[in-house]
Request: fold
Amino acid sequence: MTKRTILLLAGDGIGPETVEEVKKIIAWMNEALGAGFELDEGLVGGAAYDAHGAAISEEDMAKAMAADAVLFGAVGGPKWDDVPYEARPEAGLLRLRKDMELFANLRPAICYPALAASSSLKQEVVEGLDILIVRELTGGVYFGEPKEVIDLGNGQKRAIDTQIYDTFEIERISSVAFELARTRSNKVCSMEKRNVMKSGVLWNEVVSQTHAADYQDVELTHMLADAGGMQLVRWPKQFDVIVTDNLFGDMLSDVAAMLTGSLGMLPSASLGAHDPKTGKRKAMYEPVHGSAPDIAGTGAANPIAMIASFAMCLRYSFNMTKEADMIEAAIAAALDSGLRTDDIMAEDCVRVSTIEMGDAILAELGKSAA
Ligand code: NAD
Reply:
């Protein structure tokens, strides 16, 4: 049997509650489908700080580096507001992204038919929406040096952030976007600001060269990032895959997120490069939402973002496309049957808890496998 190793880092707040629902699905897959998942668990965020005085221990970091995939819940909460800066819960997440060199952040925006009416946009604009934003995650203005606030000595200060991109960073993120497009509707739209930024000029040039060299079968378009934001809200279904830098990707993926409703519905994946020896790539899967301290422990958390993150893990780390489709169909079926957690509650629907939603999705999976 194929051995597939997953490290679970449930974290804080609603993290453990939602990860619990994924554990039930993994146990079912092992039993019913012989999937061969081997689970290990570690601590991250406030939970790790309480146990080890750090946002992630060296031992758990080593486990993350060795696992085929990491499933991450959420970190943070008021309990850890005053811990030292370098040990704050988010430091665990940042360390994982940095040490695992997760340069490609994938954020799908899928509008489940049952939720189309609850979007802030018109139903016909979002119904059937299925787009993927590929954001560069380890470069750009969030990391470029110099990055500082200088005292000018005349009562004024100057703040500096530096946007830097090298050719290889643009090549590798655009290759990820083109490869993913081939598994979808085969279209990539690259977004930058080449009209006012030198990094935008290079971005545009390198994406075009990468396309010409290896991906001419994929349809490529370019759009200025501000126009892209407008088009995302006007007619999002024109897009398939959008590839963009760290800063624009941060904003555009949040815009795309709200097309589909609640934070509790949004999964994400962060991928590293393929290891040339093993062909494997480091990867971490996590919901977009945080630890939601306001509802932690009440049973109100929506587990769908976490479960859909696991579906992404099946698709991108284990090449288990059929099983990923099954999970996404089971989520859609549970929603179609009218079940809703608090955050997506609507008229004439049945309010359910985290556990009940997890059980309903599991039951739908069982039906589809029968
Ligand atoms: P949040 O995403 O935790 O919550 C925002 C709002 O959305 C809250 O009202 C919450 O109840 C609701 N919500 C979020 N996920 C939900 C779900 N699955 N089901 C139902 N409702 C859900 O963001 P926040 O309140 O700004 O931050 C809370 C803590 O989480 C902070 O400590 C923050 O630093 C941390 N945070 C962590 C991550 C992460 O771990 N990746 C991301 C964002 C925020």
